Structures are given as structure tokens and as C-alpha cells.
Amino acid sequence: MKQRNSRDLQLLGAKIIKGDILNFHRLNKTIQKVPTIIGEECTYIFHLAVQAGVRYSTINPEKTLRINVEGTSNVIKAAQKNQIQRLIVTSSSFVFGSQKYLLINEAHPKNPRSYYGASKLATENLVKVTRHLYPDQEITVIRPFTVVGARQRPDMAINIFISRAMQEETIQIFGDGTQTRDWTHVDNMAQAFYLAAIKEKAKNETFNIGTGTRISVNQVLAMIQEYTEKELKINYTDFDKTDVKDTYAHIAKAKRLLNYYPKKTIEDAIQDFTNYWPSDHYNKSVKLKTNIITPIIS
Asked: 116 an active-site residue?
């Protein structure tokens, strides 16, 4: 999936350099070479390199912590060394753990339930210290809430749900499916990252980025069944201890300082991924339904 995305980005004119954020020397040299690669100075760095996966982090905590914490430290150091105007660091809604209240604002208590969440909270603390010691270094933090859309990783929920639906395989759900998520379309997330880079008021701020709505897993499954016209086979199993019951982003700060207003919905993400899925798996397209009703819990 990543290799295909990289190839497609190259066709659009992007320059892809394979590297490792744990290798500070190469990371630093790559940033230094940006002017000769793209013909202009490097003004912003969007740091999205990560060892992702909540359940993966349970099996591989050392790798997750090393890449996410030490790797982020290297990115911060390289940004300082090359006098980057602004660094945008990706955190996660998993820093919050179980919600103490809804909506979840930026000040909500941080109590991660997974090594992944702990690694992201550690990166936020690195940013906090850097802001204190080096106030001239601009670092903005984005906390994404459940990003969805075409081309997402194979271990992500929408990919799993739709792929198994299309292949008429059983979908495994941890818990009873009543848990809710603030499903955030990747286009909304891209908008937020762009605004975080260019808006003066975003300097050294942290933002929760979602849609400000929440929809249960069962409701999403019903939408997938209607859109794909497949009878879903669902197996409910025990709730995962690393998981949380609900996520629901308070995005008032992002609206106020970034002028961030999400336009796309979970319905759009389901349609996008379902339309993309045949080309990804079989290099062909299929005719699917184009209108469904999106139930929103507010």
C-alpha cells in the first residue's frame, strides 16, 4: 500500500526519499539537500513518520517507543539545526485514554492505555520541553481523531471492514459495536495540517482535529452493508484492553485559530474506500450505490 501510494505521489511530482528517522545523520543531510531537490528552501516539516498501531505496540513496545520517541527527537533536532520555520508534529487522540468527559478538548486529562498512546504522549512532552528551551523554534502539534479514507493502511478499521465485506469474509469486532468514534476524513486532516503550517495563530499550539461528531461502529457497519450491498458476517468478541469506549473531538480551538471547518464525512470515506478497493485488489471497478443516509450521534 505504501509503495503504491509513493509511486502515485511521484507521478504527481513529489520527490520520494527513502530513509529512517532513527538515522539522524541521513535525516539531517536530506533536509539540507531540499533546496537542490525542489529548487527552494525548506520552510515547513510535517512529521508523520511513526510506528503506528495500538495492538502492534502491545506486541512490540520497544520498537514503538524507540521510533516514535527517539525518532521524533531526531526530527526536532534536525528542524532546529536547519532553521526550519515551523515543524508540525503528529500526535494522536490515544494520548487521552479513557474519556473523563465528552467532548474531548485539548486540556482533557492524558492517561494512555497503550504503548502507542504512551509514545505519543512522550513526543508531546518532548515538544513541550523544546518550546520552553528554544522559544524561537515553532512547533505545532496535531492530534488526529480516527482518520479514514481511501488508501489507508490494511490494519485500519474501514479497510478491514470493507475488504472483508467485499470478499464476504467475517468481520471481527472488539466489544459490542456500540463504541463510538469521531471518524475524520483524510481530506479534513490534510486541510488541518496545511492550516497549522500557514496560520500565524497556530504557532506553538496543540490542536485536536476531528469532525466534532461521533458514530458507533455498528452504525458504520450498517452504512458499509448498505453501500456495498453485501450481507455482513460479524463476530463480536471481547473488548480490547488497549481500546477506548468513545472518542469525540472538541474542535472549537481549531475553528477559532485555524479556521478549520471539516467538510467531508464518514459516508464520504466509505464511498471513497469502496470505490478504490476493486482497483487496489483486482485492478477493476464495480458499480456501487452512491447515496446512503449518515446517522450522526451528537
From this structure: yes
